[in-house]
Amino acid sequence: MVAKCGGAVALEPDALCRDVAALISAGVPVVLVHGGSADIDRLAERLGQPHRRLVAPDGLSTRHTDSEALQTLILGLCGITKPRLLSALQAAGVPAVGLTGIDAGLVRARRKSAHRVVRDGRVVIVRDNHSGRIERVDARVLRSLLAAGLVPVISPPALAEDGAAVNVDADRVAAAVAAALDGATLLLLTDTPGVLADPGDSGSTISELTLDPDALPDCAGGGMRMKLNAAGEALRAGVGRVVIGDGRPERPIRQALDNQGSTRVTLAPAGGHGGLR
Asked: Residue 134: its pLDDT value, please?
């Protein structure tokens, strides 16, 4: 079981960590992957750093991670978000180990040397963005920790081919980890009750969403687009079950897996077309 929580969910981790404890008591090994955008943004504001985004020609928005922003990202994830999660897991009786993709070369990525982005209506090239594309996960590290009865708690950054840190998307880290572990289930927790047909209507949850191999659905806006990209990558890599669920309830993992406030994501067969219901 690989569960990923975002920065907003990680701010109130107690219910999540109690759910992790219940899974482990039931004999289900768990790997927890986390982001921390809220903590990173607050820290950047305290440091007087501008909050900048890069918008690709296809509309995908990502954090602009120059050298200073990369340092702040690492400080936020490893100094604020991760210790909060580790403390909550310990309080729930779960022994956990905090990791980044750098530790033991856990997550390897290929540095992106240039980025095509849209600024003022024009496509320009940005070269100071320290981000990468995930290439592989060393499952041996995780299997050793799981065999010792420990819960790995993983976050960006990843290790680039030049030995330096690069930012990678945490949803995609979770997808790559689930694939490397032959994970039966990948759960992406967010602050909405699954994927919404209408982002403005919290009651419009799509219970099952079949992804078209060639295009994402119209509901894939904002951060949900990255989650659906990660879901598709996991499914194509052989992960058996992918669920996007609400991380805010008292039992977030169990409710999501019981189809309460969650969306089961599947892939359309070759030559088929996606759909929803």
From this structure: 97
